[in-house]
Design a protein that fits this description.
single chain; Enolase-like, domain 1; TIM Barrel; 2 domains; nine-stranded mixed β-sheet; three-stranded antiparallel β-sheet; 14 strands; binds magnesium ion
Length: about 400
């Protein structure tokens, strides 16, 4: 069998309806983004599909560049082709998350082909299943939205600190969902938050019994993360922005987190995800793959990986962002009682609905954070101080006292 072609599908995602339970005008998802699907064509009529996340339009270009390495090759030799792609990116300074996204999409499609050739779901080629269903968690911006998710069966809820720490909001969500639901908080690695601020925040969150506190400081600042680690008992999570085992290595080796969060669309591929999980397993660390940037195709790959590793925790699930999510691939994944069934069809078990995917040509390629959106990119700071905020600005964002007044 030989690879004859690699096609790409770039899809504009949006606009988004309010999530269940959201107040009018509130959306659990903002900005605009794209998804990049790929399809590898072979001379024997078997096709494989994959998805790359990170910077999809750039990933699309990278996929076509890497096609020169792959066309004419036997798709069976996945690791060898991965190594060739990896070496091919050396002239670009190795892969980063964009190259990681491109290699991920291609490698995922190679696994899909192998599964179809063997007549087996990918999980069965990876060693078989630990579990039949994968628990997922959703996102909620308000206690009402969190409660609605629990009514839909979700047993895990993530609350974001988008631009400001808000302990009251987390406490209100805890009150709304009760003690039998896992809550996690994502600070999104704010560069303005010092390690000291992050420690104070983590300690304020400790009584709320979180599953984990995610990206409490800029994830590039590993020494700051180490300080936070030493300053709190709350479990920490990070890793959504890195690719490959070399990207996740310091988080694991230094024991900086309890949970690694590789993104299934840009971690480097299914094998890289498995290797990351094995590294984490050796350090008694769990894995909860990031899905915030993903479309519905890479979710299938995440399910196959999580079915086969002992240290799978939960899968992030963006469910209420865009109705097209349920049109551009087939079949559609369904959350039932807080979990998703592991696919059983040969390969990944998903196909691109090309007619639907072609309806959404890309018009916007980056997520737009408006200045009044509560993020750190504010008027007067963008030009001279994007990454740092004054003490007064940080104080305005910390709001740690349990006053009951949400900021
Ligand atoms: Mg995150």
């Amino acid at each position: 069998m030989k690879i004859t072609d690699i096609r790409t599908y770039l899809i504009q995602v949006g606009p988004r309806p309010p999530a269940p339970g959201a107040t009018p005008g509130e959306s659990d998802f903002r900005g605009s983004r794209c998804w990049c699907f790929v399809k590898i064509i072979t001379d024997e009529g078997i096709e494989g599909v994959g998805e790359g996340s990170g910077w999809p339009r750039v990933i699309e270009t990278a996929v076509h560049d890497l096609a020169n390495v792959l066309v004419g090759e036997d798709p069976a030799h996945i690791d060898r082709l991965w190594a060739r792609m990896h070496n091919a990116t050396m002239g670009h300074g190795l892969i980063g998350t964009v190259g990681g996204g491109a290699m991920t999409a291609i490698e995922m499609a190679l696994w899909d082909i192998k599964g179809k050739v063997m007549g087996q779901p990918v999980w069965n080629l990876l060693g078989g299943r630990f579990r039949d269903r994968i628990p997922v968690y959703g996102h909620a911006k308000s206690p009402a939205a969190a409660h609605r998710l629990t009514e839909l069966g979700y047993r895990g809820i993530k609350v974001s600190f988008t631009g400001a720490v808000n302990i009251d909001k987390v406490a209100a969500v805890r009150d709304a969902v009760g003690d039998d639901v896992d809550i996690m908080v994502d600070a999104h690695g704010p560069s303005w938050m010092t390690p000291g601020d992050a420690i104070v925040t983590a300690r304020a969150l400790e009584p709320l019994d979180l599953l984990f506190f995610e990206d409490p400081v800029a994830p590039e600042n590993l020494d700051a993360l180490a300080r936070v680690r030493d300053g709190t008992t709350i479990p920490l999570a990070a890793g959504e922005r890195v690719s490959t085992i070399w990207g996740i290595r310091p988080y694991v080796e230094r024991g900086l987190v309890d949970v690694i969060q590789p993104d299934t669309g840009r971690a480097g591929g299914i094998t890289q995800m498995r290797k990351m999980a094995a590294m984490a397993e050796g350090h008694f660390i769990t894995m909860a793959p990031h899905s915030g940037s993903l479309g519905p195709l890479a979710e299938f790959a995440a399910l196959h990986v999580m079915a086969t590793i002992p240290n799978a925790l939960m899968l992030e699930r963006i469910e209420f962002d865009w109705p097209g999510r349920y049109e551009v691939v087939s079949p559609v994944l369904k959350v039932d009682n807080g979990s998703i069934a592991v696919p059983d069809a040969p390969g990944l078990g998903v196909e691109i609905v090309e007619e639907e995917a072609s309806k959404y040509p890309v018009t916007k390629n980056v997520t737009d954070m408006p200045p009044d959106d509560g993020w750190s990119y504010e008027p007067g700071t963008v030009a001279e101080a994007v990454y740092f905020q004054t003490r007064m600005r940080r104080a305005a964002r910390l709001s740690l006292r349990p006053t009951g007044s949400a900021k």
